[in-house]
């Protein structure tokens, strides 16, 4: 399969393709035309063809796409064909909620460790994973081939923690703390931010605009 | 203030402006130039000027932006100048984690109710909010001026629940279930999706591409 530079917009859509193809597989669908996939995903067929052409195009004229093959190839592109060991820093409600998401594990993201600063939590287990204290972190990362660190801790501690993680070899951070870590870390560290309150504000913006538009009618 | 049609990209950035301006206020900064704001946010100064001009432009040549005023005006645009009553459907780990986020409440998003189908959870309280059963939902929505419903329940129940909510007058859904609700609801219902596993897959994509690029060097 030939590799090209793929636009950010396409990459943003890939997980959605992967999800829909997974659902088709579950439904026993073996092949699908771009037209049918388009109807299901509410994306134009030409957009789908264009997106999937980025990966050498897995479709065949008159046959459509082989669902299993396409699902598998997109999975590879997303790095889902292997296990990524993950730790969660901050074992509060959100950290524990994420540790309990078994669906992440099914996609290859395996939570191998949970860390917190609160001594009361020491040794408490979540889905069999004991909560450890931060002083064990450097050794744990080394011994467990940890690739991804999830930050579910307060903003005030996030930057310092991210720096400690990077010093200990972490290259990928899934950040739930409400601060832009990208600004303080080396450029080759990959940060994916999930800023929940910004998402809520977009919802509120859309709700407010909708109500204002209704009033004017 | 005159209102124009604002692009999605600008709206996406607004919560981030709001957050940075809030931090400046906390630090006691009263005015700031687009240049300084640019440096802090790692966005070009011209982008900032262009974005903020969408709202009639709050800056003054030679003075810069009045931080408090700009924060307040962006807050109004985002609908943060009033309280939005919110309920959470699905009182598992994630639902409880969100109910415990006091920062949402500070932005005007008030969790007034928590619902679940599991009778074991009935009456359990989270931050003083009792978990209620779904049969109480229609009356609760009416009596509590609920605007936003947060869905933290399995994909298999999400669509049916969203339809029930809309029938009972909910216009805005904050959706954590891994399914695209937009596809099955009336067009004027506002859905903001937070698909956590898609975010994790983007992280994994970037990590995989980075490693492949490194190998080639």
Q: In short, what is this structure?
A:
With 217 residues, chain A is of the alpha/beta class.
Task: Explain what you see.
The first copy, chain A, has 217 residues and is an alpha/beta fold. Helix content of chain A is 47%, strand content 19%. Chain A has 9 helices and 10 strands. In chain A, the strands form 2 sheets. The first copy, chain A, has a 7-stranded mixed beta sheet. Chain A has a 3-stranded antiparallel beta sheet with strand order 1-3-2. In chain A, strand 2 and strand 3 form a beta hairpin. Chain A is globular and about 60 Å long. The first copy, chain A, starts with 7 loop residues before the first helix and ends with a helix. In chain A, 35% of the residues are buried. Chains A and B meet through helix 1, helix 5 and helix 9 of A and helix 1, helix 5 and helix 9 of B.
For the structure shown, list the relevant keywords.
3-stranded antiparallel β-sheet; 217 residues; 7-stranded mixed β-sheet; alpha/beta; homodimer; 9 helices
Mean pLDDT of chain A: 90
Q: How do the strands of the widest beta sheet of chain A line up side by side? A: 6-7-5-4-8-9-10
Unreliable segments of 5+ consecutive residues of chain A: none
Largest sheet of chain A: 7 strands, mixed
Describe the secondary-structure layout.
Two copies of one chain form a homodimer.
Chain A lengths: L7 H19 L4 E2 L1 H8 L3 H9 L5 E2 L3 E3 H11 L6 E6 L3 H8 L1 H5 L2 E8 L8 E2 L2 E5 L3 H7 L2 E6 L3 H13 L4 E4 L14 E4 L2 H21 L1
Parallel strand pairs in A: 4-5, 4-8, 5-7, 8-9, 9-10
Antiparallel strand pairs in A: 1-3, 2-3, 6-7
Helix pairs in contact in A: 1-4, 2-3
């Amino acid at each position: 399969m030939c590799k090209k530079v793929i636009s950010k917009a396409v990459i943003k859509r890939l997980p959605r393709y992967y999800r829909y193809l997974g659902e088709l597989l579950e439904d026993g669908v073996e092949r699908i035309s771009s037209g049918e996939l388009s109807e299901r995903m509410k994306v134009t067929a030409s957009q789908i063809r264009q997106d999937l052409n980025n990966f050498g195009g897995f479709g065949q004229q008159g046959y459509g796409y082989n669902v299993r093959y396409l699902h598998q190839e997109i999975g590879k592109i997303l790095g889902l064909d292997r296990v990524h060991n993950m730790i969660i820093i901050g074992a509060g409600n959100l950290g524990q909620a994420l540790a309990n998401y078994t669906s992440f594990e099914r996609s290859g993201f395996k939570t191998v460790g949970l860390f917190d600063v609160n001594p009361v939590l020491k040794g408490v287990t979540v889905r069999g994973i004991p909560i450890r204290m931060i002083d064990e972190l450097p050794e744990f990362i080394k011994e467990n081939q940890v690739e991804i660190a999830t930050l579910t801790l307060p903003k005030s501690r996030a930057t310092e923690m991210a720096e400690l993680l990077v010093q200990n070899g972490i290259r990928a951070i899934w950040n739930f703390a409400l601060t832009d870590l990208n600004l303080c870390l080396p450029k080759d560290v990959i940060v994916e931010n999930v800023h929940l309150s910004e998402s809520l504000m977009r919802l509120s913006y859309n709700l407010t605009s909708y109500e204002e538009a209704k009033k004017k009618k």
